[in-house]
């Protein structure tokens, strides 16, 4: 196959990309994104601050620009993200307790209703665990509403759009030996045992010298899949874009039947949130990097 998306489709998977609405006027960007990928995640446009800037006033302008571009170009769409400590609008940052809990549920209902039946996977909850060795939840206004905030979000999400796969998404959870990975594993196992609706786990996979790729990532994916959830690589970028690491990540996904696909977090290095890491598959001029060829050959 000659594109990443077509190559991934041969095994029933997708190869996706984060798309930013403000790049859709860049002809080089658009031609690469349209040609190479068959899944799209909005990089920022479906987040809480973008979709509900004022309480009770939803705004889907930028989100719909990304969504409509994706669908018009034949791509599936991953939804990102509904409940998160970051990129909250000011009104939500200042809420707490039962008012915040209700606002979270209202937000899930508002956004998921707008896209009901149109989103393959939703990142319902993003980044709820703390970094480091504690295995604890991250402190946040949402966490302070009660430890059950994550399951409340997933139950609301299932009711709002029963057709979407509901994912928990996080970073630094790829290495099986990390405490954060074990904490996330215990939560997913508990949810499955108690019937809390969860369908998938997203591994952001922002690899860099501080949080490097480890070959036990495949074990992690396998162990989560064995709990009865799908898995996905949701925001892949790798400092320096070494071809061998990119190929390893793709091979890890392909080795796990419940791995749905891989999404890279941007098109060209200049589009990356960590552009100084030159972590992506395309040079700034739009030409293919060695890692691109490594990924295509691995798929
Ligand atoms: C990042 C975007 O790429 C940036 O443009 C934005 O300024 C901050 O957020 N984990 C996530 C993504 O789940 O939403 C983040 O995206 C990167 C880390």
TrEMBL record:
Residues of the full protein shown: 43 to 341 of 475
Annotated GH10 domain residues: 1-298
Catalysed reactions listed for this entry: Endohydrolysis of (1->4)-beta-D-xylosidic linkages in xylans
Native source species: Streptomyces zhihengii
Keyword Signal attached: yes
Enzyme class: hydrolase
The protein's Enzyme Commission number: 3.2.1.8
Protein name: Beta-xylanase
Active site (catalytic residues): 235 (nucleophile)
Keyword Ion transport set for record: no
Protein family membership: Belongs to the glycosyl hydrolase 10 (cellulase F) family.
Entry superkingdom: Bacteria
Keywords (A to Z) from UniProt: Carbohydrate metabolism, Glycosidase, Hydrolase, Polysaccharide degradation, Signal, Xylan degradation
